[in-house]
Amino acid sequence: MLLRQDPEGMEVFMVVRHHQIDFASGALVFPGGKADPQDFDENLLPWLNGQDGDQNMRAIQVSAIREAFEECGVLLAREKGSQELVNAELVATLDQYREPLNSGELSLIEFLQSNQLILACDTLVHFAHWITPEGMPKRFDTHFYLALAPEDQIALHDGYESVDSVWIQPQDALDEAKAGTKTIIFPTLRNIERLANTRTPEASVAAAQATPVIPILPWTEKRDDGMYVCIPTDAGYAVCEEKIPGRP
C-alpha cells in the first residue's frame, strides 16, 4: 500500500487487475503477489536491511518489495553503503530487469548482487493480515504493508497483471465503490476504510505502528435476506459485514 501526500490529501496507489486473471479480475487492488521460494533464501540476508527476524515474515517483506518493483516499477532499495533510497534516475536504468524478474529468467539475488542493491525492508510497516475463508476453491494468506512512496519514483502498472493504475484518495475510492464505478473486493474496501481515518501518510504509518495486527478470517452467514460475509467485530474495522450481491 504505497502512500503519498497530494496537495488535496493523502493518496494510495492502486492498480486494475487484468480481466483474464481468475482472482479479482477487473478489480481495483493494491499492487502485490505471492511469495516465491527464492524469497525465503537465507543467502538474501546480506542484501536486506531492517528485515523481520521470522523467516516467513522476512520472505513476505522481500516478496512485497520485489512485487512492487515488478508490478509498478517502485523499488524500495538502497545502493550498498548508502542510507538513501535509490532515486528515479537509477530506477529508470533498472527497469529493464522487471520482466526478467517476473518471468523467473533472472533471480532476485542475481539482480541485487549485480547492481549492489540492498532491499529496504525497514520501510515497510505491517498493516493487516487477511486469510481467505475455509471452503473456498482458492485460498490466500495475505499480509498488507504500508510504505511511503519515494517522492521521485514513478509508479505505473505493468500492462500484464494490471492494465491500469491510479493514485486515489481513500475516501474517493470508497465513494466510487459505493457508486458502482469501481469494483473493489471486501478485504480491500475494509483496509481502504482504515486508511481513510488518517489524513497524511505519516499519520497512517504511526497509526499502523500503534495497532496490533490481528489475523482476519472472514466467514459467510445465510440470513433471511441473503448471504453475508462477516469478520470479527473486535478486528478494528468500522464495517464488519457486507451482503453478498445475488447472482442472476
TrEMBL record:
Keywords carried by this UniProt record: Hydrolase, Magnesium, Manganese, Metal-binding
Every Nudix hydrolase domain range: 1-193
InterPro entries cross-referenced by the UniProt entry: NUDIX_hydrolase-like_dom_sf (IPR015797), NUDIX_hydrolase_dom (IPR000086), NUDT19 (IPR039121)
MF GO annotations: hydrolase activity, acting on acid anhydrides, in phosphorus-containing anhydrides; metal ion binding
PROSITE patterns with a match to the protein in the record: NUDIX
Highest rank taxon of the organism: Eukaryota
Keyword Hydrolase: yes
Cofactor(s) this protein requires: Mg(2+); Mn(2+)
Protein name (database record): Ndx-7 protein
